[in-house]
Amino acid sequence: MSYADKYDAAIIGSGLGGLLCGAILAKEGQRVCILEKNEQIGGALQTFREGGQTHDTGIHYIGGLDQGQNLYQIFHYLGLMDRLELTRLDADGFDNIIFAGDEQVYPHGMGWDRFIEKLAALFPQEKEALHNYKEAVLKACDAFALYKISPEEQYDDMELLALSAEEVIASLTTDLKLRAVLAGSNMLYAGVAHRTPWYIHALIINHYIESSWRCAKGGDQIAKLLAREIKARGGEIHTKTEITAIHQENAQAIYAETKDGDKIYADRFISNVHPAVTLDMIDGNALRPVYKERIKNLPNSVSAFVINAVIKPNTSPYQNKNYYYFADDQVWDTTQSDERWPRTYGLFEAVPRHDGIHLEALSIMTYMEWSEVAQWADTEHTTLHEVSRGADYEAFKKEKGEKLLARVAERFPDLVKNIESWSASTPLTWRDYTASQDGSIYGVAKDYHDPLRTLISPNTKIQNLYMTGQNIKLHGVLGVALTALVTCSSILGRDYLITKIKQANEASA
Ligand SMILES: Cc1cc2nc3c(=O)[nH]c(=O)nc-3n(C[C@H](O)[C@H](O)[C@H](O)COP(=O)(O)OP(=O)(O)OC[C@H]3O[C@@H](n4cnc5c(N)ncnc54)[C@H](O)[C@@H]3O)c2cc1C
């Protein structure tokens, strides 16, 4: 592998966070090099081909992409918006919450007026509660300057950070069903009653209510477009390049070392890898053990079990919407892999590529705890390491998959009948493809009891080593994009970067 003598910035990991930082720094004139351990770039944006279909892995839908909205502004500044092929989800119900034993479908409408109108039709006594919910969400969003792509400082409202999502929703209405419906898309942040902060719910839900989209040709479009921008500005992307060490002298990172012993020198380094893994890569004693311990002990969000199915041609109509199912109204208590599994699932249909009408591929996602697969923890399987985990693992996946499909068939019998073939990913898949801790889907889990503990600074004690990605501030496409702005602001200056984004958007308005 050949590398330049020295880069302005070397970025470890080509997940969305690494690619966004690379694209921003390249656009601002830096010579960038991205180092990715896998064959394919993108981390959770990767897609794979199976059964003649392309399947998404970690991106089912995205919010905030209407002109002027937050993610739009960032993507537009980076030159993505003209090329990204998107399909707007059904405005009358982009997300639809369903419950066992209740035939009613509870839609989340797009735009706040429609959101309230759709739910008020089903909960006529709760109009005021719905308006209060909207006000509470918007108030929380308003406290985060960066969410509005504004240069001011953020996270100054400690009271807000310490609010519980479950408790705030419960305070707005006594109607148990409406509470469950308002929290019904909490798979978007793996919500749990005793931990999830209200601001996490608000920031995520609001941007989907503003506008919700599917990547028409798969989430890897975003990775490919960012890679194109990076390369067009002289940047390099090296795949199959696993970084195993970051060498430092006097708290200054000097070079990153690959598994094969290559050394990559740079003025600054950004790690898109889990912070606990990043800190383990740093040699010497530059980091205080207490800091390392704190980062290592951070709780991570749960993992997932996802079925990717191929549908028999011309059988099921494509539904331009998502469903979130719950076994009962206890929507904050669904992540455990106990005998009640699966107590929830999200059903996400891929935009059909042939006639636009008939469903071709779909994902069904539920939670799965690491303990379920811990017995195979010593196995590794990626496209670079095609090692079988054994027949017992395949039998485990089959059993779990059939159980999940039986649950889906209770509500969508024809859809399940029309499945031609399916495969499943488990916590091991997420661990091996993204190096996330225990296959955690959204990284470090935020906790309203001790909010600052789980919000990590992008700066480290190594002066020229920064961190980015979902573990640092917020997960999801929007969360990782905002985190990339925080990381790059530490390098470029927040005023400078936000002004550049604003200018790019004003120029085209
Ligand atoms: C099942 C699932 C469904 C999701 N659905 C949605 C959704 O619908 N909408 C949404 O907005 N978000 C969704 N998300 C969340 C979103 O995908 C993630 O928050 C986001 O993609 C994470 O990006 P990242 O850059 O933080 O990290 P990652 O995507 O985890 O990338 C990390 C990268 O670093 C690389 N790496 C790790 N170690 C090394 C090393 N030592 N050397 C070199 N490279 C290394 C990895 O291979 C990987 O490419 C979903 C996530 C999952 C798992």
Summary?
34% of the residues lie in helices and 21% in strands.
Instruction: Please tally the helical runs, counting DSSP H or I stretches of 4 or more residues.
Output: 16
Bound molecules: flavin-adenine dinucleotide
From the spread of the alpha carbons, the general shape counts as globular
| CATH architect. name of the largest domain | Alpha-Beta Complex
Mean pLDDT: 95
What percentage of amino acids are in beta strands?
15-25%
Distance between the termini: 43 Å
CATH first level of the largest domain: Alpha Beta
> How many structural domains can be distinguished in the coordinates?
2
Structural class: alpha+beta
CATH topology of the largest domain: Polyamine Oxidase, Chain A, domain 2
Task: State the helicity in percent bands.
Answer: 25-40%
Quick one: how many beta strands? 21
As an assembly, this protein is single chain
Question: Which ranges are low-confidence, i.e. pLDDT below 50, for 5 or more consecutive residues?
Answer: none
Determine Rg (CA atoms, Å). Answer: 22 Å
**Main sheet, how many strands, which sense, barrel?**
7 strands, mixed
Can you describe this structure?
Helix 2 (70-77) crosses helix 16 (494-508) and helix 4 (127-142) crosses helix 8. The protein has helices at 16-27, 70-77, 112-122, 127-142, 158-161, 165-172, 176-182, 198-210, 220-232, 275-281, 289-296, 391-411, 413-417, 427-434, 476-492, 494-508, and strands at residues 7-12, 32-35, 47-50, 53-56, 62-63, 86-88, 95-99, 102-108, 212-215, 236-238, 243-249, 252-258, 263-271, 303-311, 322-326, 344-349, 361-368, 381-382, 385-386, 419-425, 465-467. The chain has 2 domains: 7-48 and 219-298 and 456-508, FAD/NAD(P)-binding domain, CATH 3.50.50; 87-215 and 299-439, Polyamine Oxidase, Chain A, domain 2. The longest helix is centred in the last third of the chain and has 21 residues, at 391-411. The strands form 5 sheets. Strands 1, 2, 10, 11, 12, 13 and 21 form a 7-stranded mixed β-sheet that branches. It has a 7-stranded mixed β-sheet with strand order 8-7-15-16-17-14-20. The protein has a 3-stranded antiparallel β-sheet with strand order 5-9-6. With 509 residues, the protein is α+β, with helices and mostly antiparallel strands. The model has no long low-confidence stretch (mean pLDDT 95).
